[in-house]
Write a structure and sequence with these properties.
15 helices, globular, mainly alpha, single chain, 2 strands, two-stranded antiparallel ribbon
Length: about 300
């Protein structure tokens, strides 16, 4: 064997021994991450996945506590899908989710552009803008209920009175109640979207902005041609999160209107609550919950597939 032939074998031997040692090391410690995740997985299993499986089984049964459940197949699904109340609640849920999704994303994006930077003043402003997210939702709903007082002395009526608009009923008016709840959701969700946008803005190459400025691009053109393309993955993630948040809207609707007036703000979550806990129709309520989960899952999968197709 010549020196030229022996050299590659000598060079490859340490690499082979090192890779084998690394594989043994990784193989012997594969359980360490799962050990740290075990407490959270147990909690998720007990409080989330088991109840989800139980809801699926209840959706095909007539639930009779202490008397035994009876199998009814798809009767619960047929009943809730043929219900006018469910169709109206589903429409209200979609409308509310669309308003809250796009409203919070647009407002969050605008706030992120305004507070982007590293100065101490901006740090304080970002913290103050993020407060709606950390305030308990029950407190937020009560504050907005007070501001939506339908008389002329109400805070929001005084605000719109400054531009010459008359007093509005807001959550007490069937024509404006759903929009009023959407405003509350946007106010609460926009700061959360703002923080994610700020993280995305930090990952955009500053050199692109400098090059666009040298080429004479205005601020608007820099946003359109540099910022928005750089934030495309962030928009996809936020769209899924905001849409899921909108589909699962419950607390603010329950506390502000409880589905009223005249069912104008009834959403799927409040309808499920009333069917299951107020009317004791747990099977029909579980069917509605499964349908809502399926709609959310389909939306998430479609967005991910569309995102992969565009990236490809």
């Amino acid at each position: 064997m010549s020196v030229r032939e022996a050299a590659p074998l000598t060079a490859r031997a340490p690499v082979t021994r090192t890779s084998a040692r690394d594989r043994r090391r990784r193989g012997g410690q594969w359980w360490v991450p799962w050990l740290f995740l075990a407490p959270a997985l147990v909690l998720f299993l007990y409080f989330k996945f088991i109840p989800m499986a139980r809801a699926v089984s209840m959706s095909v049964q007539e639930v009779r506590p202490y008397l035994g459940n009876t199998w009814v197949g798809g009767a619960n699904y047929a009943e809730i899908l043929s219900s006018d109340g469910f169709r109206s609640a589903a429409w209200n849920t979609v409308v509310l989710a669309v308003w809250q999704t796009f409203g919070s994303m647009v407002l969050g994006f605008g706030l992120a552009l305004l507070v982007e930077g590293q100065t101490r003043k901006l740090t304080f402003i970002r913290s103050a803008a993020f407060l709606p997210v950390v305030v308990p939702l029950a407190v937020t709903a009560e504050l907005w209920r007070i501001m939506y007082h339908p008389t002329g002395d109400g805070l929001m009526n005084q605000v719109i009175g400054l531009i010459g608009l008359g007093p509005s009923g807001f959550i007490n008016d069937p024509h404006t109640s759903l929009a009023s709840i959407a405003v509350t959701g946007i106010w609460r969700g926009a700061p959360y979207d703002m923080m994610i946008f700020l993280a995305g803005l930090a990952g955009i190459d500053r050199g692109l902005y400098e090059a666009a400025t040298v080429d004479g691009a205005s601020t608007w053109r820099r946003i359109v041609h540099v910022t928005l393309p750089g934030l495309r993955p962030v928009f996809a993630i936020l769209f899924v999160l905001a849409a899921v948040r909108g589909f699962r809207t419950f607390t603010e609707v329950f506390l502000l209107t409880n589905g009223g007036p005249n069912g104008s703000t009834e959403v799927v979550m409040t309808l499920i609550y009333k069917l299951g806990l107020e009317q004791s129709r747990l099977g029909v309520g579980s069917a509605g919950a499964v349908l809502l989960f399926a709609a959310t899952l389909v939306l998430t999968v479609c967005v991910q597939l569309l995102r992969r197709r565009r990236s490809a």
